[in-house]
Specification:
195 residues; 2 helices; 35% strand; globular
């Protein structure tokens, strides 16, 4: 307001300000007027100068935002595989209201890990409004259970590397063509690599 420009009302939980640089909302999917926004990597919690908490964590937050009420209505945890797989690439809602989520590492070649999982957020705990301990993103599933939280369960749909999609490092788009066809879109970093 000191610049004289009104930019709206704060509607996202304050902890999202602890995201790593360039690791904000990477995926969005709209279901019945609720926008599900998937943060790309774990939030740095506790917040440190070198993002050490984020780099050690595997729990990613999903924010559910009611586009009519203009308010957050849910938060869920999704656990990344880890071991180099440290970011969400995209997500898409299925006709039955479940989601497909792409998670990935930065590698190319046979060892690259680009994985599409199926999740059902209705079976996960909506922890919006919970008093969470510092460092909750570092919790194990048992630690979450002690807090009364169940993260989204996931089932592998396709290992993209195993079917030959292994020459690019950034699949960052999913689109559902029909019930049996999924389009995967790759980020080329605007040609910045020169290739």
């Amino acid at each position: 307001e000191e610049t004289g420009v009104a930019v709206g009302e704060e509607a996202i939980p304050a902890i999202y300000a602890q995201r790593r640089a360039n690791r904000g909302f990477e995926a969005v999917a709209l279901r019945d007027g609720i926008l599900y926004a998937f943060i790309q990597s774990p939030i740095d919690n506790p917040d440190g100068g070198k993002d050490n908490s984020s780099k050690a964590a595997t729990l990613v937050r999903i924010l559910a935002f009611d586009t009519t009420a203009k308010a957050a209505v849910g938060e869920y945890f999704y656990r990344l595989d880890g071991a180099g797989v440290d970011k969400i690439g995209d997500a898409v809602v299925m006709p039955d209201g479940t989601f497909l989520v792409l998670e990935r590492d930065d590698a190319t070649g046979a060892a690259a890990r680009k994985l599409v999982y199926h999740i059902d957020l209705d079976a996960a705990t909506n922890f919006l409004g919970y008093e969470l301990p510092l460092g909750v993103e570092l919790q194990s599933d048992a630690g979450l259970a002690a807090l009364g939280i169940t993260p989204a369960a996931k089932t592998l749909v396709v290992d993209l590397g195993a079917i030959g999609y292994d020459t690019v490092d950034k699949p960052e788009g999913l689109a559902l063509i029909d019930e049996n066809t999924l389009a995967v879109i790759n980020d080329n970093d605007f040609g910045a690599g020169g290739v």
